[in-house]
């Protein structure tokens, strides 16, 4: 270690472990995209209840209920247990969820026999994983922001978003490989709200394929849980609970001894300001943080990510799983744009440009359902929409949420903001299928296709205006500078 400059290798190694939590976050939330049709076909075979569009929407999104709970308690756990133990707990929940979703029958039900009780058990396991996602989504970027030097914080927190998107891309490939020569089931509409599985459908996909997709997460969850045991606790958390010598040791390894002493002094000087009162710095700081989370989900991105194969299939552009993998690669590329420009361009410009790009893409999809165009047009519009999110709201929202709040309210404020993010994620994801399938007059189901994307496009425009008017630029500011910024704005 260099005593003057600190060790970048040490910093990068602990950040690499933390971003594995982001990878699990992405893996868990996107695994449903490949499994949802097989899962739907499986439960359509139940004889004791009717598996409707609404139930499928809730089942596909049930993990998000756990995400809401996990993010809501993340502030309490991060403050009482610490950032590191909370991440270990999240890893255990990921592992339990992966195994349980693979084999929801466990000791209580007959294997392969769908029923309402089995559906409840499956959703419970998905909710358990969601709690882990909620914890990781709040605490991983918080942890990275608290260990990172101010001149690298935006880039390092952005790597967490890269890991989320990479996790989604990995699971797209895994789902594709698991499916192999098999095919997704053919589901036919047989009534206003009733569906049936076509007799020619591949039974392996219905009985087994979706299980392997959910179970594959257990490998990554186990690796994360083991590795996170070896990272240090956040130095800012240690300073806030009075363990100054340990905090100084970690800060010295990261920043060098001279800088570490100054950083610790700044942390301690802000730690005395109205400790742990959420509105100590006024209403606006909480409002901005919450609305950043709300807009990140209200623009509709997760509806696209979760149901990507279904959307591409409806556009008639070849193998939908291949299209989904291509979209995942595009997402990775444009997330890297944010990683390498966030410290140069700043947070606000990227959010505004991304909002405009998303609005163009979403409205392009909406218009393609009114005007007769080549299927390539809506496919490219979806790609523009998704890519624009990936260099803006995807990573930058997490950067801002992790750094915008003062030290003394950060864990509680991040928990509130991220809880709102998951609430709106659930609202968007659970309503997408019913909205997408809405029918009206001569347009038929094209009405729903048009309406839902037009709505997302309008929300993107509102998001751009919100950022321009209310969100402060945090580029180059230390976490301790946030205290002064919000004291002036109060």
Q: Could you give the topology of this structure?
A:
Layout: H1 8-44, H2 53-80, H3 83-102, H4 116-147, H5 153-179, E1 187-189, E2 195-197, H6 203-215, H7 217-228, H8 235-240, H9 244-255, H10 257-270, H11 283-298, H12 301-306, H13 308-315, H14 320-345, H15 347-368, H16 376-390, H17 393-403, H18 410-436, H19 446-470, H20 481-489
Antiparallel strand pairs: 1-2
Helix pairs in contact: 1-2, 1-3, 1-4, 1-5, 1-6, 1-7, 2-3, 2-4, 2-18, 3-4, 3-6, 3-7, 4-5, 4-17, 4-18, 5-6, 5-14, 5-17, 9-10, 11-17, 11-18, 11-19, 13-14, 14-15, 14-16, 15-16, 15-17, 15-19, 18-19
Structure description:
By secondary structure, the protein is mostly helical. It is built from 20 helices and two strands. Strands 1-2 form a two-stranded antiparallel sheet. A hairpin with a 5-residue loop joins strand 1 (187-189) and strand 2. Helix 5 (153-179) packs antiparallel against helix 14 (320-345).
List keywords for this structure.
490 residues; mainly alpha; two-stranded antiparallel ribbon; 20 helices; 2 strands
Provide a brief overview of the structure.
This protein has 490 residues and is an all-alpha fold. The chain is 75% helix and 1% strand.
Indicate the proportion of strand residues: under 5%
Instruction: Report helical residue fraction.
Output: over 70%
Note the main sheet: 2 strands, antiparallel
**Total helical segments:** 20
Kindly report how far apart the N and C termini lie: 42 Å
Apparent shape: globular
